[in-house]
Amino acid sequence: MRLSTLAQLLLLTSSTTVAWTTVPNNANTCRSLSQTTSLNASRGAKKWSRKKAWLEKRGFTEESEPLSATTSTNSSSETSSSSSSGLCTVVGGGRIGSLLSSKGETILLKRGDTIDPDGSGPILLATRNDALDSIVDNCPPNRRKDLVFLQNGYLDTFLESKGLLDNTQALLYLSVPALGVEAVDGITSVNPEGLTASTGEWAQALSDRLGSLDLKCNVVGMEEYRPAMFEKLIWISTYMLVGTAKSCTSVGQAGSDYTALVESVVTELVTAVSKKEGISFPEGTMARLAAYTDVVSDFPCGVKEFEWRNQYFYNLGDEECPIHNGLLRECAEGGKLGFELP
């Protein structure tokens, strides 16, 4: 959309306030109707000026289409806090960020870009976990409630430290093998409805956007989301760890060649989480995780982002997670970790 068009829309929506005022009239005072222009018009102009400068920095001009922002028309005309219509901000131009910005009206922010303080709608964070701290700290305070966390791993400690535990979160059970390549959805023989789930204010907006990409996303409450979050944490912590310890080339090989070991670790971690968090997992955890592994069987193994993934279980101690922690030490002794264990 051109800036001139946006300006016209802004002017059309500027409001005029009708107010009753008391004015003197020589010998007597009478009440008259005085139509005064609201300060909203001048405030709106200032706000538009700031937004115009912000958009121009990202490639919007009076005569051209946006450069660093990806725009496309969404067929939905609904406008609500839970809808995907309207402007959506995506932070991160990698595989997931590029996927999410390929449909719908979107501003795609990359390294060095800033979040518009006057904007609205969901802000989808499609970045690595280690980028979250600076993103949150640099986010305008009034927009922090709009941040949507899409990262793998255990985020509770981080979110609590930032006062963002109530923000929208999502579990993305999908794989994008390479930039621009079609995504593989987490639809399995056990869960044909898909495993991707989201909770929070912008969960429906995310679900709608993924739906426009022919990807499934279940909108759930926190009570249902929490065990699902730990289940995904268990999947990535188990298959990556077993695969690395046993020199597997993929999660599929880890699951097929070391089935008994994978099942032992999953059972151990489910029990440990249930005890620590007081969470009851729905029956069939192993079947769900094994079925998802079949969908992304070629995904390579590697113990990464330790502080966001395996460290949660490692910190529970050897009494609760002896197999898991033993495999971590085995990897460390074999030089298969890119970090030192605490």
Automatic annotation (TrEMBL):
Biased composition (Low complexity): 68-85
Origin organism lineage: Eukaryota, Sar, Stramenopiles, Ochrophyta, Bacillariophyta
The protein, known as: Opine dehydrogenase domain-containing protein
Residue span of region Disordered: 62-86
Signal sequence residues: 1-21
Domain of life of the organism encoding this protein: Eukaryota
Keywords, sorted A to Z: Signal
Organism: Ditylum brightwellii
PANTHER family: NUCLEAR PROTEIN (PTHR34044:SF1)
